[in-house]
């Protein structure tokens, strides 16, 4: 969304029950939301079902959203919960602990060029799920560490270190794929 | 356009997504959803009355209460006609909407339930022949909006303390989730009962969108007030070409969920799940008590773990991971058992999700002999493969301690020792052995005779005879284990130990008689679950051992 003020207005119109506002919101977020859900969901939970559920929840609950500026975080949290709900149905056992990592001070974070988007997309799919998730939010929504922390439910420090290591892994994976 | 935006669009394009907006079909679906939601606010319906009637009448559960159902149907239809709404789902929607409002202010909830399951097995596992096991659930949302919850059955407990989720499989296996998983994770589908509003939301969605589940809403007039009853019929999910997993989880069964709301308050007051079989409907889950807004101390959401805890985690890639990735499920099962046979526990660990190999597993499977490994198969929605196997467990030497220093004056068993005369299990007699009607006969028996008589009775599962040599509590416990095994479909007789009884001797060190015995090893025949849907992409034993 280019202008936060514009988004806020659309959210407020949705809260007033204006149908065209919902359609605008859907147009804006559906493509990126789809990308995010596909990245979370590598185990056969139906992406279309998840997205349908997410928008149904948005429609029914948007009146409860107190801060319209927070819409994106709220939306991605809903999506995340729906995906994990889908996992729950399929799992016998569990997803397991992910170790906390701390960036080495003075290390340089790789920068990625938009020209490499295709390679980056391929490499992203090979990352650990929790690395893939934070990078996806960072790349497609340009979310702040704070917002990502709110979506994934962990501390800002954890997000910072995850993004750091995720970028390192992504760079390595791209190099590996390049041979 | 800056690099970030270009990058975002480039990623979407690489995934075949048009960054400019939704696709036409998505727009149509979204528009339809908006239409349906808008309609539901005004008039609506979706489940035709004839459907409701068909569901009520076809249900084997409600058949016995057919008269009540007909009365209920009349009640619903009257409501429908009076409000000029042509179908029953309108009233269902209204009830659910009211019910959602009713639980809106609930800050804490405590649910007691019972389920046909095994105490230590997966939270979601069911068995139509299993006894009921008690289950309790607590949830609390504090003033800052932080949610905590706990779900517990005798052999397992799972706790979310506001930050992370930990499960303990008693006595000492644990799993930790680094994020606050939604309630219901770790296969505790019924954990969702604590999210009463979510249940209602889902039911509402099903009502309005005609999803695959079939739904019926009725009003039942009871002595102590009326109830609104919502029934949802669901078919088993998964492929049951091989039906091994059929009816092992709710989702893998044809079942009916019955929600009961108090008519006046619209609060959920009951919930039951019935699994349909060809012969009968079996109640497998039942809420026995729900308390809204109880005081719950935060200590309830803390978990104390034993010092020797064994952590389970997702397998990490090994140095020679490729070798394991290439294995078929059958090869993985063979390699696992071969490693057990050789007592190569480092190798065994490569097929496990635990941080170390449990000593009990070492003791049980060490030195086994593989009889056969069958062809792997899939069943239900299980993500892994099931591999049939038949193994013979290692023969072991045991020394049985006996004593006749009791008022009955006959030898009874007081302890089990290993080949080096190290105590394995103290057999405690809380009461003196009973004086039998034919006590003299038993009093004349030598230690060897007693050992032979006991293990002979064991091989026949003659529990009455076993009680003459072992304490009642021990025999009762063994009887319970045998019953559970039989319910799981295990051929108990085939798996009983064959014990060869040797000579008796006196141990001055222990001041007791012992009989040297040899357990010739028993055969175990079962199905092992293996799966490789983990980051290391190698096969991990997931159950069935």
Count structural domains of chain B. Answer: 3
Give the name of the CATH superfamily of the largest domain in chain A.
Answer: RNA polymerase sigma factor, region 2, helix turn helix motif
Topology, number of strands of chain B: 21
Distance between the termini of chain B: 58 Å
Mean pLDDT of chain B: 80
Which ranges of chain A are low-confidence, i.e. pLDDT below 50, for 5 or more consecutive residues? 88-105
CATH class of the largest domain in chain A: Mainly Alpha
Strand composition percent of chain A: under 5%
Question: What summary fits the major beta sheet of chain A?
Answer: none
Describe the secondary-structure layout.
The complex is a heterodimer of chains A (179) and B (545).
Chain A: H1 4-15, H2 19-40, H3 47-61, H4 71-90, H5 117-124, H6 129-141, H7 145-152, H8 156-178
Chain B: H1 3-14, H2 24-41, H3 49-58, H4 60-63, H5 66-82, H6 89-102, E1 108-116, E2 132-141, E3 147-153, E4 156-160, E5 165-169, E6 173-177, H7 196-209, E7 214-222, E8 225-234, E9 255-262, E10 268-276, E11 281-292, E12 310-312, H8 321-325, H9 329-341, H10 345-349, H11 359-365, E13 369-373, E14 385-392, E15 396-403, E16 412-417, E17 423-426, H12 439-443, H13 447-460, H14 463-466, H15 472-487, H16 492-495, E18 499-507, E19 512-519, E20 523-531, E21 540-543
Parallel strand pairs in B: 6-12
Antiparallel strand pairs in B: 1-2, 1-11, 2-3, 3-4, 4-5, 5-6, 7-8, 8-9, 9-10, 10-11, 13-14, 14-20, 15-16, 15-19, 16-17, 18-19, 20-21
